[in-house]
Amino acid sequence: MLHAQLDPTARQTLAVAAVDAKTRKDLSWQQIADVSGLSVAFTTAAVLGQHALPEAAAKAVAELLGLDEDAAMLLQTVPTRGSITDRVPTDPTIYRFYEMLQVYGTTLKALVHEQFGDGIISAINFKLDVKKVADPEGGERAVITLDGKYLPTKPF
Fold first, then answer.
1. What CATH architecture is 9-74?
2. Tell me, what's the pLDDT at 99?
3. For the whole model, what pTM was predicted?
4. How confident is the model at residue 89, as a pLDDT?
5. pLDDT score recorded for residue 7
6. Residues with Cβ within 8 Å of residue 124, at least 6 apart in sequence
7. Residue 22: enclosing H or E segment and its boundaries?
8. Where are the domains of the chain?
9. By the 8 A CB rule, do 27 and 37 touch?
10. Helix axis angle, 9-24 relative to 40-47, nearest 10°?
11. pLDDT for 77
12. Strand partners, 41
């Protein structure tokens, strides 16, 4: 049976332990995703407390990280989602995403509505990918793909 968390504390505590184990074992998120059988983005989000893992994936991840059965069970619970508190993020990487939405949020909204109509882009029926590519002008660039199903507003 699927269970849900009402308080994010348990999953936050587990996330801290999981990241500590990942660091001690010198594992990458991709290596953890490989044992889960799921995408690196989904697995990372789950380990960080934002998604529930299927039973087999939760057990495999817990085993790889050296976490106990309680941790494997907790990885299967539906979390209280949302890792950013009600304040402006202070972590520089997260803040840049916040800044991007501050600058381009209304543009994204206008373009989505113009192309699709009144509605939203799902964060549930959703895929995320991050790739590192060479910058022709030197250095590297991040290509971040947000792939969500469009859900139209339905008058009732």
1. Orthogonal Bundle (1.10)
2. 95
3. 0.83
4. 86
5. 84
6. none
7. helix 9-24
8. 9-74, 92-152
9. no
10. 120
11. 96
12. none
| Per-residue tokens: 91 | 């972590």
* Residues marked as catalytic: 96, 99, 122
Question: Which token pair is 126?
Answer: 């959703």
Provide block-wise average pLDDT over 10 residues at a time, the chain (156 residues). Answer: 88 96 98 98 95 98 99 95 79 93 91 95 95 98 97 92
3-state secondary structure of 1: coil
The helix (H) or strand (E) run that includes residue 93 is: helix 92-116
Beta bridge pairs of residue 141: 133
DSSP annotation string for 40-92: HHHHHHHHTTSSPPPHHHHHHHHHHHT--HHHHHHTTSBP----S-SS---SH
Amino acid type, 32: I
Q: Which structure tokens are listed for 92?
A: 């520089």
CA distances from 20 to 37, 83, 154 (A): 22, 18, 45
Residue 5: per-residue pLDDT: 86
User: Would you state the pLDDT for residue 72?
Assistant: 98
Which two three-digit tokens encode residue 54? 């299927």
- To which CATH superfamily is domain 92-152 assigned? Cyanate lyase, C-terminal domain (3.30.1160.10)
Sign of CA pseudo-dihedral 77, 120, 129, 141:
negative
| Under 8 Å between Cβ of 71 and 14 | yes
Of how many residues is the chain composed? 156
